[in-house]
Amino acid sequence: MTKLVIHATNVTGLGACQVVCSLLNAFDSNDFGYTEIVCYAPESGPVAEFHPNSSTLRIERVKRFLPKALSRMLECLFPSFYFDLGQNLLVLGDIPLRTNVPQVLLVHQPHLISPQVDESSNTGVLYCVMRLLTRMNASKTASVVVQTDAMRSALMDTYGDWCRRRCITVIGQPVPVWFDLSEGRTRRLYDAKGLRLFYPAAGYPHKNHDLIRELAKNYDELNGLDVLTVTLPPEQFDVDAAWLNCVGRLNHEACLNEYEKSDALVFPSVLESYGLPLVEAMTLGIPILVSDLPYAHALCGDEAIYFDPQSADSLKKAILLLNSKLQDGWEPEWEPQLSKLPKTWSEVARQFVDLF
Q1: By the 8 A CB rule, do 156 and 149 touch?
Q2: Is residue 187 part of a domain?
Q3: CB count, 10 Å around CB of 260?
Q4: Same domain, 7 and 64
Q5: Domain count of the chain?
Q6: Where are the beta strands (DSSP E) in 135-269?
Q7: Residue 164 CB: number of other CB atoms within 10 A?
Q8: Residues 14, 178: contact at Cβ < 8 Å?
């Protein structure tokens, strides 16, 4: 009787939840040879609300009685006091657990990279503790999974044990399961006086909304730009511009609709382990304006239009270049980049299981 335990008690971020729910859907829909699969989930949120269809998969919501940071540290150091870890352990919450159970770890938290490796990594106490716990438990992992070569290189420069053992595997990922194109949904452009751009991201500092604020301060109107839609509420922007559209967080259907009526994705983030919106835009055939950083080159190759994420003037030039290219009939060819990724989440889940 083989039991797989999926540890995801700390997965609450929007992008991470999409990844975990997509993986759970794959484990729920396919037979990978386990007689039982248990996912330890947060008390609330998308992972906790996942409803399995099979009798093999079960979701166990974990209620914390101590402050979250302390509880999280204790469960990483003494996991057997909290969980039945089964025969195989898949950790989706970034930090390895201190256990001898065969453990595969997915790292999708870019702040686990040392600030000495990437200066954009958060130097706050919380992330310093996360990096310390990761170093303490690094030797307990059988395999570490990341989504790009850029993330693999950064983690190897950060954690000596993983570098020595060369245990980091790159497994790319397709769009999340909610990104449903089964009905033939494609980009549909509307009559507009200029470009319609879209930036779907939460308000974390590394998402670099400050660059858009700076652009709005300097250019109330921008030649060739009709609207740039960001998924933050208006009160989080202290500037206004004729082209800036703050819509707040969008549900999945509204997000798809926004993609479909956009000329391009703008992605000024300065720190990413992957960048799911980049894959989403490529899947829909949308042009991409993105930070000139390794994570973006790893996914987008030569087809994206790159800009300096510290320069509003560089972003402005990228927008003008996009406008010129589109007027000349240019369309990006994303198929070579997408062909490097798994086609389905079942393929992704199989690759995870094979690491055991």
Answers
A1: no
A2: no
A3: 16
A4: yes
A5: 2
A6: 143-146, 168-170, 195-199, 225-230, 244-246, 264-267
A7: 11
A8: no
Instruction: Classify 113 as helix, strand or coil.
Output: coil
> In the chain, where does DSSP find H-type helix?
14-29, 68-77, 125-137, 149-158, 160-165, 209-218, 252-260, 276-284, 294-300, 312-327, 335-338, 345-354
**Among 290, 120, 270, 110, residue whose Cα is nearest residue 198:** 290
Structure tokens that stand for 316 in this block: 């402005």
Which residues, in sequence order, are bridge partners of residue 307? 291
- C-alpha span between 309 and 313 (Å, rounded): 10
CA–CA distance, 218 with 42 (Å, rounded to integer): 43
How confident is the model at residue 137, as a pLDDT?
97
DSSP secondary structure, 42-81, as one string:
-SSSTTTT---SSSSEEEEE----S-HHHHHHHHHHSGGG
Task: List, in order, residues 6 or more apart from 248 with CB less than 8 Å away.
Answer: 231, 232, 233
**Residue of higher predicted confidence among 187 and 209:** 209
145 φ/ψ angles, rounded to the nearest 5 degrees: -115, 130
Q: Are residues 284 and 334 in the same domain?
A: yes
pLDDT digits (tens, 9 = 90+) for 98-116: 999 999 999 999 999 999 9
Report helix, strand or coil for 354: helix
24 and 146: one domain? yes
Decide if pLDDT at 190 tops 60.
no
Tell me the pTM. Answer: 0.91
* φ/ψ (deg, to 5) at 190: -105, 160
Residue range of the domain that includes 168: 3-174+342-354
Phi (first) and psi of residue 110, to 5 degrees: -65, -20
Q: 257 Cβ partners below 8 Å, 6+ apart?
A: none
pLDDT of 133 > 90? The answer is: yes
Distance CA 86, CA 74 (A): 19
The reported pLDDT for the residue numbered 246 is 95
Q: Residue 351: which residues within 8 A CB-CB, separation 6 or more? A: 169, 171, 342
Q: What pLDDT sits at residue 14?
A: 79
